[in-house]
Structures are given as C-alpha cells and as structure tokens.
C-alpha cells in the first residue's frame, strides 16, 4: 500500500471533524472520498499533508511513519495536496507559481519538469509571465495541479478540483486525473461530483459527519441505493445542487 | 547654496531612515507584524560598536581598523539579537497559539524587548550620548561649495546596494519566493513544503542586518551614539514606511527619503522645534489623502510584498 491511514482523528476544539478514519490508497490507484458539505473531507486531506495535527491516528506512506512529520517532509516523501479552492499565489506570476511546486527540489530536472507543464497546458505557457490572478477558474485549477505535479508526487491528493468549473473543464479535469494515474501517480480524490468521481476511481469512501460510513469498490458504490442517502447526510445539499455548482 | 547643502544632508539622514524603514516594511510585508525591537537593534549596533571601539576589541584586535571592526561586531550582535527575538517571542508564541496571523502578542512582546534591552544598555553605560571615534572630518569633498563627506557617500552606496540586493532576493531567489508565498498565503506555502520555521528566521536575520547597518551608518555619519538613539530614528522610519506604503520596499525607500527631506527643510526654514509637527503632519496628510501610502496595496494595513 502507498498510503495507509488508521484511526485518524481531527479535532478543532470542540468540533470533532474526522472520527477514527481508516483509509488506504494503493500504488497507482485512484481512490475517492465522497461526502456532503462539512463532512470532514478537507480536514482529512489537510491532516494527511500535515497542515493540521491529528488528535490521534497513524499515517504510513510508502512504508514510512509520517504521523508527526512536517508538511515539507511529506512533500519530500512524495505526497502533494492540490488544496480546496486551488490556493494559487495570485500576487505571483504563473511561472513563479510553478516554481513554488519545486520549492524543495534542487536537481536540474526541475526546470525541465516546469517546461513539461507548459507543453501539457499551452494556456499556461502563453501566460507564463502574467500574474496568476488573470487566469480563468479552469486555468487556475490547471496551474494548481501543475504546481503539484512538478513536485513529482507519488500520491496526489485533490480537494474538490471540479468545484466551480464549466462542464467542459470538468471533463478535461477528469481526463487529466486518469492520465496522471496512468503515469503511475496514486490519486486520492475528494469530490462532491459523485458520478464523475466514481467513474474514474477504483474504490471509494463515504464520509458523513466525520465518520466513514461506507467503503466499497467504485462500481458497487455507484450502484448503492443508500449512497445518495448517506451522501445527503441531513444537509440541505442535494445532488442537483452539486451538479449546479459544476455547471 | 545652503539649501542645496541641506538637500545633500537630507539624503544622508534619509538613507538611515530608509534602511530602518525597509526593515519595518519587510517584517510587515512577510509576517504582517510591526516589529518593535527594530529601534533597539539599531541602537544595539551603535552602542556595541562604540563600547568595543572605546574599551577595546575582542581577540586582542587593534590598530587603525578598530572602528570599522567594532561596527562590524556591532552589526553581528544586532543580527544575533534579532534571531533571539524570533526564538523567544515570535516562534514560541506561534507554536503555542498556533496562529501566525495573530500578531497582537508578538507586537507587545517585541515592545517588551525594546524596553528591556534599551534599559539594560542604559544601566550599563548611562543615558549620556557617547562620541563615536569615527573617520576624521577631513574626509570631506568640496564640490563647488557643497560639502560631501566621503563616509556619507559610502553609506549611501551601501544603502543602495542593500536595497537592490534585497529586491533581487525577494523577486528572484528561491528563499525570496518562499517569503512571498508565506506573505500571501501561509497555508498554501506550507503544504508545498515551505517550512515557516526555516523561512521566518531569514526575515529576522535581514532585519538585524538592516538595523545594524543603519546603526553603524548613524554612528559614522553623526559621530555620536546613545541608548536612546533608536527612538527618534525608529518612529521617523515608521512614518517613512507608512508614507511609502506598508509592505512595499521601494515605498519605504521613497518614504524614508521624503521624511529625511521634510526634516531637513523644516529645520532650514522653521527651526528644529517644528520637525515633529512637520513629519507627523505629513504622515497624517498621507493617511487622509492616500491611506495605502505611495506604493502600498489597496487593502490598508495588509501590505504584502
Ligand atoms: N479551522 C477550523 N476550525 C474549526 N472548525 C473547523 C475548521 N475547519 C473545518 N472546521 C469544521 O470541521 C468540520 C469539517 O470541515 P471540513 O472543511 O473538513 O469539511 P468538508 O467535508 O471539506 O466540507 P466542504 O464540502 O464544505 O468542503 C466542519 O464542521 C467545519 O465547520
Ligand atoms: Mg472541503
């Protein structure tokens, strides 16, 4: 297993955001985590990248225990998070944003990897010396993924990457995720776009109010009648609403 | 002619303000934190430099290079003190309360550092101003009736170099990108592997270097140091920074020069008593007409590099 997480708890004061979560991602596997607003998906990913300290639990990546490791140690080990809301640096140029992705790399290939991103995303190449704030939402998402990709991750974690994208960009995004996976990168995909996520993933987990309530292959989850119910989890969010966000 | 002479003098005074203002603006730009130890670091370099020149250098060093070496050690002490401030206030408080954007506590504790260090120096050396044995006064050029002291010229050169170097560091280097990333979005910087505990000390080191240099320049150009030399320079540098725009390096450069010019011109035309009114009047006027300062961002008080 590439990533093995057991008994993970995340607390913010009184809020118990993630409760005793046990998940795993295999080498070169796509795994999705589904759940309604506030289910704890972001908290889970942030704990995995080391941005929040879990209250308890164990995180083993590639055989190494990274439970108490700093985010930089996790980046070095090969974990990269594409955060919710993209979080690109709008005061920097497109190129500088990509350079932030190789912040910890000192090898000569780093510059070549950045050029490879420009080959992959010609839109970014055209705007390389412009401030990242001029990019469209879709381009910003490409930049956020490119920024993570140049770090040469073995596991890429994406937090609701399709949020706010046009349908055209959503399908391009999912194609890209499959493509990255085929190049050998393990993917942990947090999504509210259940249908698309289950189409590309091999397995999936459903989070509800911080707990994993369902765990199965993507195929059976897609057919599972209780999924919609668990996914709704007492929130006003509905599949049609989720679809609306992606329109 | 006298007016031109005053103009030349104001550039020299302004360059001291510029250096300190750049230190203030750097910390605000990256850490969003008004570092009150800056005037102390400035004073520390001058006082340590004076003490070493006066009482003798360590390691049995002596000779004609005594005062430059003394100032060099003074600058080193300022850098070390600044790193100590980071360890004891900023880092501890950040790890304890987990929010590096909550700056009321570092602000107060840095103010505490200012008072403690300043009074320690006072206890050690008294409150009297001390004469700094700098270069002799005949190092003066007479350019068509305007007197320009060589040390002043050298100082100006150093300040220009420092500001250009700092701009290069921030814009072009890896560590500079890390600093700007933390300034804009500490969270996103963190998950990409920018280690705050490694990058933040760089800010404090640069702060110590800038303040130490400014203190040394002051000692050389005005031939006098005292435990309270940081107070006036510090407040005027803050004024310069605000006029130029919080968080902007070039704003601090321009603001520092403007404050120096205002001070000299006010002395020239209205006498020394009116200086404070003029400088702080200028500051208030700037805040009224252009609250973000000359080069600052529109989001007031959230100046970013
Ligand atoms: N920094 C924080 N401090 C306190 N509570 C938080 C913090 N971040 C998240 N929470 C709370 O933890 C719970 C889980 O939030 P989280 O952001 O992980 O959910 P999510 O599944 O990512 O939601 P969304 O779909 O809206 O992104 C929520 O109740 C949220 O209010
Ligand atoms: Mg979320």
Automatic annotation (TrEMBL), chain B:
The lineage of its organism: Bacteria, Pseudomonadati, Pseudomonadota, Alphaproteobacteria, Hyphomicrobiales. This is Branched-chain amino acid ABC transporter permease. The keyword Electron transport does not apply. Belongs to the binding-protein-dependent transport system permease family. LivHM subfamily. InterPro entries: ABC_transp_permease, BCAA_transport_permease. Keywords: Amino-acid transport, Cell membrane, Membrane, Transmembrane, Transmembrane helix, Transport. Its main location: membrane. It is a multi-pass membrane protein. One of its GO terms (biological process) is amino acid transport. The chain crosses the membrane at residues 12-34, 41-61, 67-85, 105-126, 146-170, 199-218, 238-262, 269-289. It is found in: Cell membrane. GO terms for molecular function: transmembrane transporter activity. One of its GO terms (cellular component) is plasma membrane.
